[in-house]
Amino acid sequence: MAAPTQRRIIFQHIDEPGYSNDLACYVRHGGYEVLKKAVTRPPAELIDEVKKSGLRGRGGAGFPCGVKWGLVDRKSGKPIYLIVNADESEPGTFKDRYIMHQDPHQLIEGTMISCFANNVKQAYIYIRGEMPHGARILEKAIAEARAAGFVGKNILGTTYSCDIFVHRGAGAYICGEETGLIESLEGKRANPRIKPPYFPAVLGLYQCPTIVNNVETLCHVKHIVEFGGDAFTKIGTPNNTGTRIFCVSGHVQRPGYYEFEAGKITMGQLLNEVCGGPLPGRTFKAVIPGGSSAKILRFGERFKGKRKVGAEMVDYDWGVEDVPMDFDSLGMIGTMGGSGGVIVMDDTVNMVEALANINAFYSHESCGQCTPCREGSLWMKKITTRMVHGQARHEDAALLKSVADQIPGRTICAFGEACSWPTQSFIAKFGDEFKQYPETKKTAKPAGAPELV
Amino acid sequence: MNLKPTTLTQIDEVITHYPTKRSATLPLLHLIQEDVGYIPEGAIEWIATKLELEPINVYEVVTFYPMFRQKPIGRRHIKVCRTLSCALMGGYKTCEQFEKEFNTHRGEVSPDGEVTVDFVECLASCGTAPVVLIDDDLHEKVDCAKAKQLSAQIKAEAKKR
Q: What percent helix, strand, coil does chain B show, rounded to 5?
């Protein structure tokens, strides 16, 4: 079956010749019209539209946005804050970068609509430190929007006021975790907070109710309010509404970003048709479907079970290529849609070396407050690095698994899961390769094999 | 510590963005590092006084975030992405090329003082791997040939000085 055509909603103007990131261009393309209409409607109605839309968060967890907003404590009398999570740093993910650099006003409009709907008076955009140009572009765009009355005091002549400030991170992945982000914004080390009691919706920034949403999620809010929540559910598939942006990297002919209706494209269509298939003379070996912490899939494995289609339960028997790229289908086969970062590896890649690369990342990024994660991520890195650069032993696979199995569920935040899933899944799917590695090391590497650690 | 008047103005302005002064810790560290090139001795106490904190509150932030450094680096900072997508496309070779060009090792200032080459984690541009951040500018698809070309540019600019 041929791949569907792209449906660009969020990325409508990305890479469009002549489209610039200034206010005049945005307004010329119909910008801020949705905000103008939104501020004439009761805020509760806007929240209802988002609830009806079924929008699921695009940062990684896929939590329904309307439910998140519904949890906000509105009776405490404290101010409500909104934080834009622009700390895009999950390896394999590179979508928010383009929104902020090329279409910052789309994000600002989505943010202001979300702020108005939730009676937020102060919003912050937490952008990762390695995007200094992005921070400057956003600051300039906010200043333009402020001067035009879209942001700041009495927006569009109403009694509603809300400002946005840009806050730069400084190179720590853990700031993408929402409570770590909040600590960082308060000027501290980004050690995530324990939940309960510190649910951001109740005790977030400055111990006030706080909404933390991903950049892409907030852009979707603009389009939901424009189309209406019910109409938005017609895009995509039930429970996976709207579009998804897939960031494809690694060993394909055409890596890049592609926006499709959620659930309407399979892994095979995405990689073979849209991205042009494997590099010449190579074959696909493995793919990580939703950012580097998502569990790896091995080409050739099959997934069987029952799934719900409409009201009926039907059998499915999928290869990796047949899996629809939505939260639920990827969840059913034991991995996740996550942030949409699809990392592809071909037959030149040795899985021990690929895991050593990932383990070095997580070990570097653990915040260090929970012992299982701090020590576990470090030892997984040490073992895999030793296997590659020192002595590899047949029993290392079992040792790695025993370390990984002791981390998840024993940490304050989901980083514990994120750092152990790669090791667990690599060994589950490629256990033979780990066991054979002492022998493999003595043989020549395949031509074109990349150095990974 | 001698800060430029513009930096001092920016510092006073950014503190007003937050209901508590402590929130301005990261912005102040960024502004000082951009002005001086690193976080110099005395800066931690200076920020603590400015934000009504204990020096340890600032120090623990400096040591937590990889972007803050307490020692000077080369005139240009070359950050090569090390993480999986870039490594799959040859990021390690790219890094070695820069090290060779400037006769240096990762994490060290080159002998001519011109650059510091570092490996960093994912720069969120995996579709154009391997990527390199030189000071504030992102360079995409930096294979060995492009690394040579960028190095030649840096060396040419250094000669003009």
A: 50, 10, 35
